[in-house]
Amino acid sequence: MDIRVQEVPFDLGHEVEVFTDRQINMGAVVTFTGITRDLPGAGMDRMEMEHYPGMTERALTQIAEEALARWDLGDVLIIHRYGILRPQDRIMMVATASRHRAHAFEAAEFLMDYLKSRAPFWKKEVTVDGSDWVAAKEDDEKALDRW
Amino acid sequence: MDVLYFAWVRERIGIPREKVDTTATTVAELVEELKAREERYQAAFADLSALRVALDQDLSDFDASLDGVREVAFFPPMTGG
Q1: Which residues of A, range 3-22, sit inside 8 Å of B by Cβ?
Q2: pLDDT tens digits for A45-99?
Q3: Do A49 and A83 contact (CB within 8 A), yes or no?
Q4: Does A24 touch chain B (CB under 8 A)?
Q5: How confident is residue A114, by pLDDT bands cut at 50, 70 and 90?
């Protein structure tokens, strides 16, 4: 398990290569990448990602441990950035490795669903007109029900 | 105990953390104590359904006991990913 919370950018290709190379006998690696979107018509300047140092690492570790317990996984990687993010920046990534792809896909979805609502991050969108905290979506909370 | 605020809760209260001497036994009692202090706390805690609380860095709820707790954090629902 590899959990990283960092301000600096990460190299997606490099991370996937390194993660894949260190697996033994895993038939499948699934990765998900979150990217900062522009706001249609709003002219987004940046997104500010705040987090709760200490609790963030703890929450991500708990979520990863849960995934390792529920699926047949060889490994889990979570990288999540905080600080200032511009449109097109990579915000975060997860990777899962498994002997079989179904487990790798499902576990990656589980990690994303839980991470969105249970890891202490908060997004603020800053446009030319001002700034606003992004409100949590009801659907994100509902997404947890299926697990 | 240490009380921490994040996102718009932090902005409304105006500080990221503070030491609070309290006799409150539950989170809800602590919230009432804080609200009685100043208007900025009332603004932050006006709607508890819009807030989440963590005790010693684990998500909890407003009925929870503060017994043995060293760090309380208040924040809006999380929006990571």
Answers
A1: none
A2: 899 999 999 999 999 999 999 999 999 999 999 999 999 999 999 999 999 999 9
A3: yes
A4: no
A5: very high
Here the CATH number for the domain that contains residue A60 is 3.90.1170.40
- Please name the residues between 58 and 77 in chain A that touch chain B, using a CB distance below 8 Å: 58-59
pLDDT value at position A107? 98
Return the half-sphere exposure (C-beta side, CA atoms, 13 A cut-off) of residue A79: 21
Tell whether domain B2-75 is in CATH 3.10.20.30: yes
Chain A contact for B68 (CB, 8 A cutoff):
no
For residue B68, the distance in angstroms to the closest alpha carbon of chain A comes to: 18
